[in-house]
Amino acid sequence: MNQRTPTLLYIDDDSALARLVDRGLTRRGYRVVHAASGEEGLERIRRAAVEGGIDVVALDQYMPGLDGLETLEQIMAIPGAPPVVFVTASQDSSIAVTALKAGAADYLVKDVTGDFIPLLHVATEGALRQAELQKAREEAEAEIHASRDRYAALAAERELLLREVNHRVGNSLQIIASLLHLQASSAAQDEVKAALTNAMGRVAAVAQVHRRLYTSQDLKSVVLNQYLDSLLEDLRRSAEGNRMSRLTLKAEPIEIDPDRAVAVGIIVNELVMNAVKYAYPDGAGPIHVELHAQGEDVLLSITDNGVGDNVKADPRSTGMGQRIVAAMASKLDATVERDPAHSGTRIVLKFARMPAAPGRTSTAAAS
Q: So what's the architecture of 246-367 in CATH?
């Protein structure tokens, strides 16, 4: 495929010199168009900016009407204007500096015999290459900006979808928890009622995480003190009588990822419900949940002042709660210990703020 012939607009009031430029650059593969004044050159450039056809401009300084610098200033104001090589017979270097500062791609001194034409050819070739590079750079920058805009739009859409998913999942889980509560309320057998109530608490613990994510500015983390406060409030509302009236929380605003927050919530639910059932055989008593940072680790404790080791084993117990606590502790890579110095029951979990590296062996141990 043949390469397109570039077009040079030569703006100069010297028609004889214009003919020399025409002959010299035509032999070098250019099409030359002549404009005898700055006004005529500007009109051609404005038409070419819309219709195309002018690739580079050679502009003389001294002309009647608009001089070269005045013409150059107006050329630079035309959107999509071609590059300009400034040409003058003056040896005054200040004109060259002014022209280059005004936007000229190059500058050269002409003579009346046309000996400057080879230099003009070199200058126009350089101006065209420079214009091509500038265009490629602008197109690349425009593509980068467009890609960033597309990425930002996709990220915003993804965040909106994740919020909607968390909202729907949270609502669905809350409906399931409500159904379990209704079923537990109508159950005739204590074992069935207890099993349904426990299941309801586990579902509510997961639902709370999704509700937190729906209302949070950060979809990648859950603030544990806010989450546990809502979770314990759910437990208070679901408890019969005043069994949860002395349930307290003291927690620092520690952030962890949603998956591990679910594990923390389920552990708290199991240990609190265990304390409610067994710590105070004669009625309600205080149950304290505490969460605080210790360096890079997090300490979670559930404490009661009940009967402690003197609790009688319930023959109806299936051990499901202990197995769930052990499984969730393993997910957190947490240690689980009973405080032997406490007169009641105090269970302490210790786990890292950040998830364990892949392949690390869990140190969890069920009490």
A: 2-Layer Sandwich (3.30)
Is the C-alpha dihedral spanning 237, 240, 241, 243 positive or negative?
negative
Indicate the burial class of 140 (C-beta count within 10 angstroms; 0-12, 13-18, 19 or more): exposed
Tell me the mean pLDDT in the region 236-240.
Answer: 68
CATH homologous superfamily, domain 7-115: Response regulator (3.40.50.2300)
Backbone angles phi, psi at 223, to 5 degrees: -85, 115
What residues does each domain of the chain span? 7-115, 246-367
CA distance linking residue 123 with residue 85, whole number of Å = 7
Q: List, in sequence order, the alpha helices (H) in the chain.
A: 15-26, 38-51, 68-76, 93-102, 117-186, 190-215, 224-238, 258-278, 320-332
Taking the C-alpha atoms of residue 191 and residue 46, their distance in angstroms, rounded to an integer, is 89
pLDDT per residue over 24-57, tens digit each? 999 999 999 999 999 999 999 998 877 778 999 9
Is there a shared CATH topology between the 7-115 domain and the 246-367 domain? no
